[in-house]
Structures are given as structure tokens and as C-alpha cells.
Amino acid sequence: MLFELxxxxxxMAYKVPFVDFPxxxxxxxxxxxxxxxxxxxxxxxxxxxxxRRFEHNMANFVGVRYAVGVNSCTDAMYFSxxxxxxxxGDEVITVAHTFVATVADIVHCGATPILVxxxxxxxxxxxxxxxxxxxxxxxxxxxxxxxRVCDMEKLMKIASQHNLVVIEDAAQALGATFDGTKAGSFxxxxxxxxxxxxxxxxxxxxxxVVTNSREIADKIRLYRDHGRQTKDDLxxxxxxxxxxxxxxAILNVKFKHLPRWIERRRELAKLYHQGLSDLPExxxxxxxxxxxxxxxxxxxYVVRSQERDKLVAHLRESGIExxxxxxxxxxxxxxxxxxxxxxxxxxxxxxxxxxxxxxxEIGNEQVEYVIERIGNFFVKREV
Length: 383
Ligand SMILES: Cc1ncc(COP(=O)(O)O)c(C=O)c1O
Prior knowledge:
Blueprint: H1 21-42, H2 49-62, E1 66-70, H3 73-83, E2 91-95, H4 100-108, E3 112-116, H5 129-132, E4 137-140, H6 152-161, E5 165-169, E6 177-178, E7 181-182, E8 189-193, E9 207-211, H7 214-224, H8 245-255, H9 258-276, E10 282-283, E11 294-295, E12 301-305, H10 308-317, H11 344-352, E13 353-356, H12 364-382
Parallel strand pairs: 2-3, 2-4, 4-5, 5-8
Antiparallel strand pairs: 1-9, 6-7, 6-11, 8-9, 10-12, 12-13
Helix pairs in contact: 1-8, 2-8, 3-4, 3-7, 9-12
Bound molecules: pyridoxal-5'-phosphate.
């Protein structure tokens, strides 16, 4: 049977939800409605001022020259690979512990994904990259997972030594930095997602490519709009993948709140750390400010337990919404034909990870409740 997202109905109101779109909407209602009304009353729907403004906001925020709004991070990565000349016969190095889009985009270009294992921080283990490089390698796609940037110092060094393109999957890392440099600004391009559950979420799908290359930005502008150079002149075949002006208007409103939301995410991460760090059975992410090189934005708060499935059942029974990203790594998805890779750390992580609710819309008392229920689980298991 085919899975469709609309088949997943909310079965219960959670005491601690993983996302709370209505609550976020209520807090911004006046600002959002004014922005939506403005767009609709002017009829500015496709590639208009709000898109330009959002692109400007994002380029400034990430610290790059250009930003091109598209309809998703999936297309942002696909267009980046195409613009960098990745195609049939090329190999692209990435990870299996990621959302399918990273790997799918490589395949859609006609290239071959080469999957390397991740490290303890869930990001690409950059020490394994050189061994995966062959004469066919054209690009590396690091994924900055859960709001933490990959070790980009080592990775960029390898890329430049081997003359490789770097396309950053920064879908989960808007605002995160490594050595003071923002996710998305290290590579040839950085790709972001504004899927509603992301820390900056649209009211539907949206994405963006950021880059310092004028040539790449120009190519992506063509790809997103049918290859049109002008209304009547085509530079080639393109796609229909424009960021909607209405979504951009919503994103411009929310963008103003992003720094505050990131701070709140970091506060909640600190709270979890304080409440859970004395449980030896649970592996936690590093707390904020524990390493000067990293500014983490906690897009997800991922913990690990060898008793993951029982713990998840216990938390769900307690009214806490838990996500598992991802229980099956990409090389274990039979239909994708990637099962020739052997990635022990990825496989272990897939068995052990669970994501706890961490959104600016939840209160400290809700986090304390999650902490209490986790403590209760491990106490009960000791008896
Ligand atoms: C790591 C990662 N890459 C890519 C994507 C794809 O983003 P989008 O849904 O905007 O295409 C996501 C979204 O969930 C993601 O988490």
C-alpha cells in the first residue's frame, strides 16, 4: 500500500507535542494576516517583492552574496548539483543517515551516491571521506544534522585538495555556525528547507539556495523558472520550482523572530541537558556553549538509548510526541538498491535514536515533564 502523508491523522492531543503550528500561528496572527492581505490585495503572487526581500534577508543572514528561493530544499540541492555540473558517470559522497532527498538528488542527476559512515555527532565522519574518493568523485554533500555543522575545516581542506564541489545540505542548520562561519556558506552552495517543521517554517513547502557564485546563482534562477532568460527567451530546459511570493511573505514575517526562536531552542536544550545528564543509559547531544567551535541551533534534540523502542512507547503513552529520524538508514531501504554499503555507526544510530520535543512553543514545565517521564522509565527498569 502506498503511504501518503494525509493518511496520518493526529490520533491524540499530546501533552508535549513535537510541533505546534496553531500555537505558533496564534502568536504571530496579526503580523501574518497583514502580510498575507498585502500580497493578495496587490495580486503579487509569482517572483515578486517578497521573494526578493526574503532572498536578501537570507543572503545577509547566512553571510553570502546570493540567495535563490525555490520550492523546497530537495530542489535546492538538485539544482545545485546540476549547476555544479554533476551528471552521469560522477560519484557524489554523502551519508546514509539523512532524509532521502539528499541521496535522491544525486540519483536524479544520473550520478552515483557513495555513502560514508557518520560520527558520534550524527554528521559525516570526515575522516572516512578521503578513502571514498575515486577518479570519478565530483562532489561531497555533507548534511548538517539536528542543527550542528559538520567539521567543515577538515572537509573543505579535503575538497580543495581533490578539487571537489561541496554542496551543503543545511536543511536542519539555519543559523548554526562552525568556527564562527554559518552553515551554508562554506561550500559551492548551501541548501535550506522551510518545510513547516523547520526552525523557520513556511505554510507549506519552500527552500533556498545560497552561494557566493554569481554563475551558480544565475543558473539556479534559470532552473527554477523554466529556463527563461526573459519572458520569451529560453537558456535551456528548466523546471517550475519558484518560491511562492505568499510563502516568502510569511517567511519574511517569521524571519524577524528567528534569532529569538534559536535562543529559545538553546535554552530548552540546556534544560534537557541539566535534567538528563545524570542518566548513564542515555546519550545526549552536547549542551550549548560546551565547545567554542560550535554554535548549535537544535533543530532536533536527539538522544540515544539501547532500549529505544521501549522508551519511545513509554513516552508516547505519557502523551509525549516522539519522532525517530531515521529508523532505517538509506542503505537499508531495499527499493533504493544501496545495500552494498556497510555503515556500522549509522546502523547502530538508527536503532538507538529518538528525538524529544523541542520547539519554542513549549514551556519549561513541559520539558520538565519529559525529563520526569524519562527518569521514571529508567528507575522502573532498575527495579
Ligand atoms: C536533512 C534534510 N535534507 C533535506 C530535506 C528536504 O527538505 P524539503 O522538504 O524542503 O525538500 C530535509 C527535510 O526534512 C532534511 O531534514
